[in-house]
Amino acid sequence: MSTRNEELAALLHQMAVMLEILEDNDYRARAYARAAGVVEKLQEDVCAVAARGELETLPGIGKTLARNITTWCKQGTFQDFEKVKIRFPEGLLDLIKIPGLGPKKIKVLYRALGITSLGELEYACLENRLIDIKGFGLKTQEKILKGIDHLKQFARFRLSSEAYALAEGFQRILRAELPSEVEIYLVGGLRRFQEIASDMDFLVICEDINFLKRLEDRKIISNLKEISRNHIMLSFDGFHVDLFRSRVKNNAAPILFYTGSKTHVEKLIARAEKLGLKITNEGFLKEESFLETPTEESCYDLLGLPYIPPELRESGEEVEFAEKGQLPQLITEKDIRGLFHIHTVASDGVMDLERVIHEAIARGYEYIGIADHSQSAYYARGLTPDRLQAQYKEIVEMRRKYPQVDIYWGIESDILPDGSLDFPPEILERFDFVIGSVHSHFNMSKAEMTDRLIKALENPYLTILGHPTGRLLLGRPPYELSMEKLLEKAAERGKIIELNAHPHRLDLDWRWCRKAREMKIPVSINPDAHKPHDFDISYGVMTARKGWLEPRNVWNSLNREEMRLVMSRKPWRGA
DNA sequence: GCCGTTTTCGGCCCGACTGTTTTCAGTCG
Q1: How many domains does chain A have?
Q2: Residue A304 to residues A166, A208, A325: CA-CA distances in angstroms?
Q3: Distance CA A516, CA A510 (A)
Q4: pTM of the model
Q5: Which of the residues in chain A have pLDDT under 50?
Q6: Per the UniProt record, which residue ranges are transmembrane (predicted)?
């Protein structure tokens, strides 16, 4: 599936939302939504199908959609879309981000109150204008206000994946603009791999900063502000940028200084003092003269410390570990030998089983674990027992066809509100592994949710606890639970905890990874893959690194033979 | 807008929860 399919799917989806709000025929909207899903799941390039004139053979795509898609392939848009877009107030789409507001309610707000943006909606709420509308009330109004507040609070934040993409784009532009000898470095929290970012920091080593004015004139950047001689603020693509400047070439001290964290640097400064050294944002000084610090390694070397990777530079504790020579040997992507938690078209993935296998082989993995949704996850076409049987047959066939990779058969089983898994033991027993995940009933009390998950961990068939906190970064807060109690139970029962590598989740949080490591609970870095791109687990690995994890702490760093052995013994089932 | 026929139009994915109602519509996973 190409990105072109994703692009078209996004456009069709937007069309569906706009139609649902503007028009009264929901089914026209639904047809576009359905088509979006079909295009997204399509295994080949949609425009190749269009070129063959075979679009109408796809389910949910008739004459009109076939014509529109064909036009889109040639022109990047189609007339029906443009017509609707002209009639649709731009700011209205933002409203869908507010929890509890769907197309129906937005339609009412638009028609009854003429609301077309978040700002207008907030104002209407503050004037109590929502409570009189049919279907709305005080609670809804308060919930909306809370949602707007939440959005505003997080509006300046980006997922790390998005922030890195922006940082790369910004660096590319600077490189094109600047003479080749100018050095540009990403520093700050983003370099230390925080899971969400409110800004990005760069260090530029150069004399002349007039290039920034030129970029502002060309509207590539905006809000240019000189805070001090060596600190400039600006906006790039709506994202806040702090640009620090240094003039000394081949000097890594400012890189270290601006990468932080503040606590980390303070610890280094304190250590330097004891050694008769001084650290500033300009360099390392001994008796008022600068020392050579061409690399960060040389900086740490002057302090008698081994190199500390940026992602570890947080609380300052890492400096003490470095002093004792006890820094972790951090996991790398190369250490990951196989992937679990992969969805296929059998539930809500877009890849068929064979496509998944090709992807895994192409990426050099030694084993994979298929885990589609279970029967309760109706919205995700969760597998029923009879469909499981069909999948098993397919797995057996693929094992024969692709002996170069080990294929494990698993399930992502819903953890039901009472803590039970979604299939009886006689079915669960047949899987090589079982991931248990919460997908519904999030609003339980802390005690209830903890009990629910503990009961799931007590189930002998559960192998991995999936996305343990359920958080969606910048989207949904984690559910209330006692992570300490969960980890204790996991340790007691030999269970594995997932580190969901999806950039929206990164769950287990890196702060808990360290705890899991201390408790010797294996962490599995899982892609939760629904499409080929999701096989990229780099953000999961970075989270693991930030959580001090070493290869020995990570379950899927086991090699093929080691994994075979574990799978044959299934220690999580107990004695 | 699509589909499957009862060929020319009516029906179109589940279930729990919430907040609104006073029996249900909208949202969410």
Answers
A1: 4
A2: 36, 35, 11
A3: 10
A4: 0.87
A5: none
A6: none
